[in-house]
Design goal:
Elements: E1 8-9, E2 16-17, H1 30-48, E3 53-54, E4 61-65, E5 70-77, E6 83-89, E7 93-101, E8 107-111, E9 119-122, E10 128-139, E11 144-152, E12 165-169, E13 177-183, E14 187-188, H2 189-192, E15 199-200, E16 206-211, E17 219-224, E18 229-234, E19 240-243, E20 254-257, E21 263-271, E22 278-285
Length: about 290
C-alpha cells in the first residue's frame, strides 16, 4: 500500500477520511514490544523534546499495526499550550507516519517523511478534541508496534510551588536537607498518569533547582509521614517519576536518581486519601533515604 492509501483527502469538503485499523494485539512478546516502543519514545524525547516535558494528562498510546494500517488516538488539548507529538516504532518498522486531525477531521499538521520517528508541533487556539493518526508504511515482520507520546510546555507544574523553590548543589548542601509540607490535594494523579498514585495539588509542593557534581553521587528524594503518602517528581529530563512505598519506615515513598542531571525538579508529596492533607517531611540526600 502506498502512502496516502489509508488516509486520503475528501475533495468535496477538504476533510480527511481514515480507517480505524486493525490493531493486532496478540503476541507472546506483547509486553516486551510495548516496553521497547516506550524506550524508543524516551530516546526520541531526549533528541527532540527540548524544554517540553511529558504531558501529565496522557499516557503513551501504543498499537500493533500491519503493513499499510492506521490507528487513531484521541486527545483533548488546551488552548495556548504548546504540544509536541512524537512517534516511534519497533525494530521491524522502517517507515511510520503521523497525521494530526481536528475534531472535524481536517488535517492540521502531518509528518510523512520516510523514517520511524515522526514529530508534530501545535499550539491550539481553542480547547478541543484532536486525533493523532499513526500509519504504518514499512513493516518487515507483522505486526509492527508503534507508539505516540504527547509532550507539552510546562503548564500547571510551572506555577509557584506551595512551599518554595530551593537551589541545591551537589556536595554543597546540608545533608539531609528537608522541608515540611502538607501531603495531598484533590487531583487524582493516577487518572493523569497510570503509573502514579496519590492525590496532589495543581502546583508542585517544592521545586528544587539542582546543580550536578562529578556524577558519582546519587540524588535521593524521600518523604516521611504518619499518613500513606506518595512521591511524584517531574525531573530535569522532563520525565515523570513516581513511588508509593519504596522508602523506609513502612508506607513512605522514595525516588533515587543515580546520575542526576542539573536542572529543575518539581516535587509533589501525594496522599492516597482524596481531599485529605497530612503533615509530611520531604528530604533530599546524596547518601540515604530518610
Amino acid at each position: 500500500m502506498r502512502k496516502g492509501d489509508v488516509v486520503a483527502f475528501d475533495q468535496h469538503n477538504g476533510a480527511i477520511e481514515y480507517d480505524r485499523a486493525c490493531a493486532v494485539m496478540v503476541s507472546s512478546t506483547h509486553e516486551q514490544l510495548i516496553q521497547l516502543v516506550g524506550q524508543y519514545l524516551d530516546l526520541q524525547q531526549g533528541a527532540v523534546g527540548g524544554m517540553l516535558v511529558r504531558s501529565l494528562d496522557f499516557d503513551d498510546g501504543v498499537a500493533a499495526l500491519r503493513q499499510g494500517a492506521a490507528y487513531v488516538f484521541e486527545r483533548n488539548l488546551k488552548a495556548g499550550t504548546g504540544y509536541r507529538f512524537i512517534g516511534a516504532c519497533d525494530n521491524e518498522c522502517g517507515d511510520l507516519d503521523m497525521i494530526l486531525l481536528d475534531a472535524s477531521g481536517h488535517v492540521v499538521e502531518q509528518d510523512v517523511a520516510t523514517d520511524s520517528f515522526p514529530k508534530i508541533d501545535i499550539t491550539p487556539e481553542a480547547d478541543g478534541l484532536y486525533r493523532v493518526v499513526l500509519q504504518m508504511f514499512g513493516c518487515s515482520v507483522e505486526p509492527c508496534y508503534a507508539g505516540m507520546r504527547v509532550l507539552e510546555s510546562r503548564g500547571n507544574w510551572a506555577l509557584d510551588p506551595n512551599y518554595g523553590e530551593f537551589a541545591l548543589a551537589s556536595g554543597q548542601f546540608a545533608d539531609p536537607w528537608g522541608v515540611d509540607v502538607l501531603a495531598g490535594g484533590d487531583i487524582d494523579m493516577a487518572r493523569r498518569q497510570s503509573s502514579c498514585a496519590g492525590f496532589i495539588t495543581d502546583q508542585p509542593d517544592v521545586r528544587v533547582m539542582f546543580t550536578e557534581g562529578d556524577g558519582s553521587m546519587p540524588l535521593i528524594f524521600s518523604a516521611h509521614s504518619t499518613a500513606d503518602t506518595t512521591l511524584i517528581i517531574n525531573g530535569a529530563d522532563g520525565l515523570w517519576y513516581c513511588d508509593d512505598d519504596g522508602g523506609v519506615l513502612g508506607l513512605n515513598p522514595m525516588l533515587i536518581f543515580d546520575h542526576p542531571l542539573s536542572g529543575q525538579y518539581d516535587i509533589w508529596v501525594g496522599n492516597l486519601e482524596e481531599g485529605r492533607f497530612a503533615p509530611a517531611h520531604l528530604a533530599v540526600s546524596e547518601h540515604s533515604s530518610q
